[in-house]
Amino acid sequence: MSSAFGKTLPAKWKLTFKVLPFVGALLLLKFAAHKFQAEFLTLSPLFTAIISANIFLIGFLITGVLTDYKESEKIPGELAASLEVLLDERLSLRGGPAAAAAGYLQELCGLSRALLDWFHKREKTRGLMDRISALSGAFAVFDGVAPANYIARLKQEQHNIRRLVLRVHTIRETSFSEAGYAIAEIITAILSLGLVFVRIDPFYESVFFVVFVSFMLIYMVLLIKDLDNPFGYYEEEDLSEEVSLKPLEDTAERITAAADKENADGRH
Length: 268
Prior knowledge:
Layout: H1 2-8, H2 11-35, E1 41-42, H3 45-91, H4 104-119, H5 125-140, H6 148-173, H7 178-196, E2 198-199, H8 203-228, H9 246-267
Parallel strand pairs: 1-2
Helix pairs in contact: 2-7, 2-8, 3-4, 3-6, 3-7, 3-8, 3-9, 4-5, 4-9, 5-6, 7-8
């Protein structure tokens, strides 16, 4: 039931509903602490200074991860553009030396599908790199029958795909700052629990601060962790900040259609 609800929920609200259970648990603890008179802390300037320091740390972390995120947004489109060039160059030779390259489109089709599988971790990086290298064998059939600049263009796009794959692999396997995440999570947990035991009169103001401050801090920590891996399609949590693979999916469909058409033409 929760999984179906998560799929119908707009992407911008998914993280909010992920935070709400934590805030709800803290709110219950706050009511329990108030009922049993366990609010033994006072709201001092030092407490508010720690909150400010944590917000500063979160700002530092989010600035760092946004740099990689903005770069990552471009990568699926750049991969799709390189595949489109490889497709266009192949189709431009229809009726010429392309007759000697019957398996070229099939190789390209397999690579485009393998890229999508790899983003979802259904294909290993080593296997994908082998597929990219296998394009060299497909290019070899054009030696002697196509201009040298044609082969150079294909090799350049092959290099671009390999470079982008390695960049994605680095981004999704490396966190921006593990130590920074650890201290932000520790301070957020301590502050959130501390607010539970802080005495603020009247009581409804105390409830407001528990809900607002804990929601803001927990939300920002989870947002940073989500942004840090913009290629987390394979993760069980249905988070909202993955970059779109739509350009790559559309290109894979066009390559598949072109390969199917060539096969159909070859049978007639």
